[in-house]
Amino acid sequence: MKHQLLSLTFLAIFAACQSSQESKDQSTAATAESALAAGQSGVEDNDSQKDVVKVAVGSPDHTTLVKAVQAAGLVDALSNAGPFTVFAPTNAAFDKLPAGTIEDLLKPENKDKLKVVLEHHVMTSALAADFFQEGQSMGMVDGTNATFHLKGKDVYIGDAKILASIRASNGYVHVIDGVVVPK
């Protein structure tokens, strides 16, 4: 009788452990499935250095940029390995645009226009601010060039000044005080 009771206890513990492991496996599978459905941006990683999108998402000064990147469907592309150099206009930079401009660009029917504007703020390389030289012309993701200028120690892309630079896991985010409009 004592032997049977011990066997039943062992079976109950084994079944509980098996159920717990199955639950963990299902949870892991569900997390992996949701990440695949969401793309690279859906991967949860709170330990590694933030990518360029997560840097922008974490900044209260870039909420307009984050909305625009989401509306243009660029979140997954910019969450990939890169490398990227992103020139990130602040909310105040977007506020300098003519009234209604950003609201108009955020409309679903203007997604392609918005995408072009945002792609003019991205390079497919990881370049620190001190890389740029006076008069240097660099290719942007939209297929056009942007010109850089130096004024003292300050670096400008077009008329937008680089205010700060943040190293991300997949490149650099250069915070700028203006929106760089492609010609």
Automatic annotation (TrEMBL):
Family annotation (InterPro entries): Adhesion/Biosynth-related (IPR050904), FAS1_dom_sf (IPR036378), FAS1_domain (IPR000782)
Domain FAS1: residue ranges: 49-180
Short name of one Pfam family: Fasciclin
Domain of life: Bacteria
PROSITE patterns xref list: FAS1 (PS50213), PROKAR_LIPOPROTEIN (PS51257)
This protein's name: Putative surface protein with fasciclin (FAS1) repeats
